Amino acid sequence: MNLEIFVLVVACINLAVVLEFVRRRKLAESFALLWTGVAVGAFVLILARPVIDRFSSFVGIESGTSVVFSLAILFLVIVNIHLSVHVTRLDDRVEELATEIALLNGIRHPDGDENAPDGSR
Predict the structure, then answer these.
(1) pTM (2 decimals)?
(2) What is the mean pLDDT of each run of 10 residues along the chain (121 residues)?
(3) What is the pLDDT, as a whole number, of residue 91?
(4) What would you measure as the largest C-alpha separation in the chain, in angstroms?
(5) What torsion, rounded to 10 degrees, do the Cα atoms 21, 22, 23, 25 define?
(6) Fewer CB within 10 Å of terminal CB in the chain, N or C?
(7) Distance between CA 55 and CA 41 in Å, rounded?
(8) CA angle at 37 for the pair 36 and 39, rounded to the nearest 5°
(9) What is the pLDDT of residue 93?
(10) In whole angstroms, what is the distance from residue 4 CA to residue 49 CA?
(11) What pLDDT, on the 0 to 100 scale, is given for residue 121?
(12) Which among 59, 19, 67, 66 has a CA at the least distance from the CA of 39?
């Protein structure tokens, strides 16, 4: 019974934090859907406790708690990989934009006259 209470508390805290971050516009809606899905998944895990216990005994694991935490760790590894890919894509985009800005600033002359090659008017 302790696992159900723990997972329920964590799911409620997760849902509250996600909703607060969305309200303050600190979390994008796409990621909010992901973390809301995690909370809903936790509620499903609470209801499916007998299934988890049967599965754990089937695969030879002592308790369902170990299965739940192993799945949670696997999920977090997958989320980390996804976020790493996302950050890499954003980093590449920032590099492209910085290059474009440098090129645009290099084409313009400091005094604003784009026709004068030496800056004189």
Answers:
(1) 0.66
(2) 80 91 89 88 86 89 85 91 94 94 76 54 46
(3) 96
(4) 85
(5) 90
(6) N
(7) 17
(8) 65
(9) 96
(10) 8
(11) 46
(12) 19
At 13, list the tokens.
């805290």
At residue 97, the pLDDT reads 94
What's the token pair of residue 95?
């590099």
Question: Got the DSSP string for the chain?
Answer: -HHHHHHHHHHHHHHHHHHHHHHTT-S-HHHHHHHHHHHHHHHHHHHTHHHHHHHHHHHT-S-HHHHHHHHHHHHHHHHHHHHHHHHHHHHHHHHHHHHHHHHHHHHS-TTS-SS-TTS--
62 half-sphere exposure, CB direction, 13 A CA radius: 2
Residue 96 corresponds to which tokens in the numbers above?
């492209």
